[in-house]
Amino acid sequence: MVRTLIALALWSSASAHAFDLQGHRGTRGLAPENTIAAFERALAIGVTTIETDLAVTKDGVLVISHDPVLNPDLVRGPDGRWLPGKGPPIHSLTLQELRRYDIGRTDPASAYGKQFPEQQAADGQRFPTLKELFALGAGNGVRFAIETKITPTSGADTPDAETFAKLVVAAVRDAGMSGRVEVLSFDWRTLVEVKKLAPEIRTVCITQSTANFDNARNAAWTAGLELSRYDGSVAKIARAAGCDTWSSFFRNLTPASIDEAHAIGLTVLPWTVNDPADMARLIDMKVDGLITDYPDRARKVMADKAIALPPSVGK
Which of 133, 190, 130 is nearest to 165 (CA)? Predict the structure, then answer.
């Protein structure tokens, strides 16, 4: 184990520009998302970065959750039953109240659960805190990509953008993780605030351009920036927002847009890529990493492409 930790530390220090393999929500395809079990699985497989999501409890604790409210596809109550419908906002519950819920499996009868047939249950998992996640990775050199789950219409379901950013910066600095964390969001308001408070922390502008959602074209999502003022270039508007990385829905990327992003100093990280053929295609397009529910698949593609692999550090 000691040798593994040393190897990862050396790999990390020597690979400032190494390919970034990010385990999405830990390893959503293989273990219950955003649980300690999922994060341990990611470390065991070998990832560069653990990608995850943040919510804030009523008593101001940063916890790991993709959904600002309790999701009935993922959450069981103290009685062991799936929630009958959407639960209360996490921001309305104290950490102690939140810990009553089990998130150790996905409801196999739900449409969401049927997407992940390889996922292995781990009953008894509770919503982790960001502090617990940092502690898990403190000695092994893994990086953390933490997404602020907030939208322009979140209202009372989340803290406001400025408060959210302050909590994140304080937690990252208190843990001594400023050099190992990047903060990401679809709602760029928190990213702008993070950069004001902590220029040393990397930020990641997430985008999606589909028929139902196109956040880069909506100033409410881009902290007031107008895409038309940046030649219609998503890469340019992300750079204007102060971001270090552009994380695009993988189907929206083209060789030209990747080249443009690189030319203006952005790294490019597509999400969420689960098909090995798509992984290989994007690697050939010169992306800087991949976000995936299946880092085990990505490692095989990386090996085929002769890309250096991060060592596994888990059990």
Answer: 190
